[in-house]
Amino acid sequence: MWYFLARMQQSAKISDPQAEQSTPQIRVEGVEIRLVRLPLLEPFETSFGKIDSRLIFLICLSADGLRGWGEVVAAEQPLYSYETVGTAFHVIKDFLAPAVLDEPIASLADLARRFARFRGHNMARAGLELAYMDLLAQARQQSLSTLIGGERQQIAAGVSLGIQLTPAQLLKRVERYLSLGYQRIKLKIKPGWDIEIVDEVRRAYPKILLSVDANSAYTLADAEHLRKLDDFELLMIEQPLHNDDIVDHAKLQRLLQTDLCLDESIVSQRLAQAALDLESCRIINIKIGRVGGYSEALAIHDLCAARGVPVWCGGMLESGIGRAHNIALASLRGFTLPGDISASARYFEHDLISPEVTVASDGTVAVPEGIGLGFEVELGFIERQTETRVYLSRK
Length: 395
Ligand code: OSB
Ligand code: MG
Description:
This protein is an alpha/beta fold. It has helices at 2-15, 85-102, 108-115, 122-139, 144-148, 167-179, 195-204, 223-227, 247-255, 269-278, 288-291, 294-307, 320-330, 379-385, and strands at 30-46, 49-63, 66-72, 154-156, 158-161, 184-188, 209-213, 236-238, 260-262, 283-286, 311-313, 353-354, 364-366, 376-377, 386-393. It has 14 helices and 15 strands. 2-succinylbenzoate binds next to loops.
């Protein structure tokens, strides 16, 4: 009961970050879009495909001499979701940026309301919400974490390991990240790369926090096969079934002991609520991009906290700019499981922020206390890597 009351008070703070401190309205003068190519140190393979670089989609909002940064996490191909760099570019340029530039922004809720009439394109809207929140944090001289009511000084780091050519290569990577202190290992699985490799990793490391992520590679007809995963004491099985399903997942959850976690299916607070009502999962992965920004991510966090459902912060192979936002989000009290938040060096030779994100030997990432993102944005490096730059301003 005590805990519940504490949560209720905190929710009130979270859902209206400006309730306790007045903020000047933010009059956005320009929306800059930059597409920045960043090679990955290693290719990343999931059940839906393999990539060896990211085209990082940055948004920079300017207002009153301040610059707020956000990242659109869409990929180049519509494989994880229907959004792409191209669709996000179109939707931002033609619909969302004009709504941002229209009138001074009073609050996060005001911004979310302007976007509410548009359907879908969550990653595009999230990019603008992120940049706005960085601006707001700077205007209030606060860190992003403080702005949203974060309580943790450190967050638990996990790593998501892609499909490898051989089980031996996978084991080598598991060993590497465990020796670096990572608190949870997640294995990407697909038919043909599942039971045997989980068995091998589990036998080598009987005690670690281990989970799997199928990115929708199975159907309910595979239930008997997936039941074999119950033997390995997994922390969770992430998104085994179709990307927009919550009904079959509920049927599958009833057949499994292992907790299911939904990623792709949870695109809004409404769907999170429906999935919890249906008992489609017992854990939720919150990705700010997938759910359309901070307003929705905070609402899902609050919903899950009120229902005692653990959440964790997912990743989309973001640059340090998106990662800084993920770190802030994961500092909220309800993020009780290690996230897919890894060091910059796990992804890139050179990140877009300094200092780079590092994981301490105890497997934690420090939540920065500096204003805004809490990291410097490496403008010179961004400039050198920029493939496309577009500046939108009020007509
Ligand atoms: O399903 O969580 C996923 C990366 C791209 C698209 C989808 C996913 C992922 C990851 C990587 O698992 C998480 C990360 O380290 O950023
Ligand atoms: Mg996932």
